[in-house]
Amino acid sequence: MSRKPKQKAHIEFTLNGETAEVAFAPHKTLLEVLREDLNLTGTKHGCELGECGTCTVLVDRKPILSCLMLGLDVEGREVTTVEGMNEGAQLHPLQETFADTGAAQCGYCTPGFLLVAKELLTKNPNPTREEIKEALSGNLCRCTGYIKIYEAVELAAAKMRGESVELPKESVYGYE
Amino acid sequence: MKNFAYARAQDADTAVQLITQNQNAKFLSGGTNLVDLMRENIEQPDHLIDVTGLPLAQVEELPGGGVSIGALVRNSHLAANQIIRERYPVLSQAILMGASAQIRNMATTGGNLMQRTRCYYFYDTDARCNKREPGTGCDALEGFNRIHAILGASDDCIATHPSDMCVALAALDATVHVTGTGVERTIPIVEFHRLPEDTPQIDTNLQPDELITSVELPALPFARNSMYRKVRDRASYAFALVSVAAALEVEDGTIKNVRLALGGVAHKPWRATEAEKVLTGAKADEEIFKRAAAEELKAARGYKHNSFKIELAERTIVSVLKTLASEGGAR
Lengths: 176, 331
Hints:
Number of helices of chain A: 5
CATH topology of the largest domain in chain A: Ubiquitin-like (UB roll)
Order of helices and strands of chain A: EEHEEEHHHH
CATH class of the largest domain in chain B: Alpha Beta
Largest sheet of chain B: 5 strands, antiparallel
Distance between the termini of chain A: 73 Å
Order of helices and strands of chain B: EHEHEEEHHHHHHHEEHEEEEEHHH
Oligomer: heterodimer
Strand content of chain A: 5-15%
Number of strands of chain B: 12
Helix content of chain A: 25-40%
Shape of chain A: elongated
Strand order of the largest sheet of chain A: 2-1-5-3-4
Distance between the termini of chain B: 54 Å
Number of domains of chain B: 2
């Protein structure tokens, strides 16, 4: 008995600033292609129903949910994952402030939050707390550490504006 | 996910050709609903025709003051559009109250119209559902039906349409432009979606070979005084229990023009024509707002867990009209 030839999709796109070429089963989502075929496991599987934001990546610089996009759809486009946030050996300011403030607890939701925050700060270098909340409202943190996440985004924004910043004093509910 | 064949169309004619040539084919745009349903094995197309490459991503002013919205305009792009924000604020507000930023960046105008219901029983392949598997029955009728319809439902289906955007479009009298095999036609938005009757598996009056190309908003100067209010179980990222889209023009204390539509209450965006009849030409006060709301909800029928929606809808209508009457009066 002969087997049907196995068809693979074969695409080229820009991944974290470099050209990537990949072949994969056509039904795979972008999330699966990134993790399984490109070995970039920074992007996490979450609800896979479009509800939690954990699988967020940037496509053409806009945050989208990689669990709801077919891998086929990024052909010729520009994809940024958490692995592409650092500039050379230097962490992105958001990555630094997330680490410094303890905005990452278990860390599972962090890549999604980082990428949404990165896009927010590109559009709006000086967001208010309300604007940050609104921008991050599609991302869930089940450790519920939202206050530290807001603080980390505010600190990174200040850093990126060239202001000297100080870590907030440790407290249970944000600033003392 | 079941495997499928995939093709990309670069123009509408090719897209229509591909969908007619292939059995069990579906158009794919933003994918925020279709890919989800495919993952859950609720939709199992054999062919996907990707239409995201079609040149339909423009918002254009039309002569005479209307606006044409290309079928592939992303929800985030439309909500941020200056013309929409100024002339049709109800539409911008409705979009921004739906989903999350990530999903709005993906979802398209045409795809929003084609969303399927979020009924839990439709999503649960172990449950009976006439929409998913015609003739099997409806487990929502006797089940947990908190989010279900109170208007226009049938004994076969009490699902609701989940879109916020479409409720605003219904209030604004939008028309949907579609193209099929050799035919182009326009469908008024209120006739685009349908009531379930005994064929709830059919959501819309779009033919299988037809593709949405654009949505047209008519010139509606008084829609500058319009708004969308959405009542839901949490403040963001939830579907509407009840929502109200309205535009109101009051002159010398009398209602000159009104447009009113409800979301979360029916199988389609519900244009509140009975309420509009009561309101038009009447004195703009709370008493008439209440009477109009009651008139619209007269035909409502509640089920075990959703009867609260009847009063909720009435109160939301009154509250929105009061807000618009006071704001419109101040302008």
